[in-house]
Design brief:
The protein is α+β, with helices and mostly antiparallel strands. The protein contains 7 helices and 29 strands.
Length: about 425
Amino acid sequence: MKNYKLLVPFVLVVLFVLSIYMTFDSNMKTDDQYNDYIFAARSFAAQGIVVDAIENYTFALEIKDSLDLQMEIAVFYKTHNRIEDAAECGREMLKSFPNRVEVYGLLMNIYSEQHDYIACFRLADTMQRRNLPLDAISETLIEINDYYFFQGQYEDVSVFGGGYCAVKTKGLWGYVNETGRRIIRTQFLETGPFRLELAPVLDTESQAYFIDTEGNKKKVVLGVDNVVKLGAIEDGVYTLFDGKTWGLYGKDDKPLAGGFDEISSFINGIAAAKRNDGWMLIDSTGQPVNSATYDHVVQDERGVVYRGERLFVKIDDHYYLIDISGNKINETGYEDVKMFYDATYAAVRIDGLWGFIDTDGSEFIRPEYKDAHSFSGGFAAVKIDDRWGFINTDNELAIENIFIDVKNFNSRGCVFISFGDEWELLKLYKYNF
């Protein structure tokens, strides 16, 4: 019994040493197997034998999983045009390694090759939310920054105002929101832009009223027998054409001022009105803002004449940039101008060519274009060789000049364009994912 007790520790030591040896030997065999699979996978890959390469990569991965091996497999898939398999590898890696920027770089490259630009911008958004540096994807992101897609087809369109735009289908008008989704069905004979969540409309029975952003009737115009045109409403004040003259109306539908040949919408506290041969600026009571009269006051498609404390007026043969008091901002006279669209840079024509100025009247982009719109949403439409495209604020052609006609960008990267008979909505991927 004594000898047996002495033997027990010895046996335990032997078993322990044996277990270590067996574990080491097993690991050696496992490493050998792993290396064999990797060697075989790479050999098959070099020969273009895809199926066998994948099989050996899979065996190796089952033995020893790592980010480096997963990246190698994903690159192998990509190299051999198994793009969706490469993308799936990338997505699986993100689950296990959500903060490794090289995975994002690989996936960004794959999505770009697939032309899945929405996925690219979602990936960038994820990195930003996780406070990861964008260096790994920045080059690809720059390349696809101005990529776009099209949505919808319409007979005619207006311009975005208050986040909505009127569109025409089968002879009737409705509205889409700033992403292009139809929110009010086409049902009106005439429509105007939304202003403070109300838009003027004429229905198929020629009744005039204002609707909200869900299409609900909110304010009916009373006391006027024949409403032909209805302007936007602000603080209860709106403009109206009865087929003979234009007038400015107040909250009780009583005329504040009338007998105008033309009048803009009352927006930003100001309207421009023409009586006889002269234009004047009027306030919400219909009274002149200053004593000056002009040959013309420039307005945009929304009827806005005053934005960013600036407006353009025509005196004799030239247009001038002025403030609301009638003071000239500079002494430069322009051959033609476009109203400031979002108080950034306005298009002006000098010596037959269009360029851009800021609200101080300083030249921003020298005149060089056949035609142009003012900047909106970071872009300006310019006409080159009889086709419209878009430049950015660096005066780079961001969207190729391939369009017959164009409108202005909104803040969500959407703009209506036309190739001929119909209008479509161009949407930048970076704002619409």
